[in-house]
Amino acid sequence: MHHPPTDVRPSRYSFRLADNTNTNVEILEASSGFTETGFKVWVAAQHLCELLCRIPSVVSGQRVLELGAGSGLVSAVAATLGAHMTASDRPELLSHLRAVAAHGAATPRFAVVPLEWGSDSVPWPAGHFDVILGTDITYMNDCAPLLTVLSTLVGTSGAVVLLAHCVRSPEQAAGLWHTMRQRLGGVVWVYDGYDVLAACYDASRHDVQAQGVITFAYGAACPAKGTHLSASYELFREKPLLELSALVVKREERLPGMLGPFLREESDGS
């Protein structure tokens, strides 16, 4: 039985826009309870909100889906920036998400739908959404169900995924990057946080920017020049993580349409 926390109360967040004005949202959030992840705002969610507010064109006027929306902060902020916003999560969290969606001013309101990554089908065809967002939903070692959902939602369309990942373990972050490159059939690159990802491969680094955030981007093809994603893609092409620790990376291989390091299993033997 899923029991929501008893300390849920309004929380106000403010993020600076590119024109130096602020966007403000108020959501309903629990102040404690690590296991109640759907009721608490985590670092990656705040980081992605800051990114979206710096470049509102990422979501403005777009059909946007948030996976694992949890507290609803990212969905509320994206809605204030002009996104046609849909938030999704496990069925047991939907009542809380709906309360957040109906809370406060009309501007940040958004639709709420159930979506479990391990289910047999995704209820939308590829390209139904222009942008798919996710924050702190890649903390598990096995992300296969999530990556399957992402592949289905993107397909061969022009949809773009932004996943904000909070680094709690360098090994897990490096492994996530490797898994995404192997299992996602399009183009994967670092939209923001290149230095954080690079630090995960450096055996001499012991700090590895604890709580640092990497925002991965994924699409079926390279972003068109002049779009809001092309600048980050071109920048990452210039710095494809070449200086990597031999303790983690045995060689650097390029796959068609892919950028970055290729990790081999230690049992590879060569």
From TrEMBL:
Gene3D superfamilies: Vaccinia Virus protein VP39 (3.40.50.150). Transmembrane segments: none annotated. InterPro entries: Methyltransf_16, SAM-dependent_MTases_sf. SUPFAM superfamilies: S-adenosyl-L-methionine-dependent methyltransferases (SSF53335). It comes from the Eukaryota. This is Calmodulin-lysine N-methyltransferase. It comes from Polarella glacialis (Dinoflagellate).
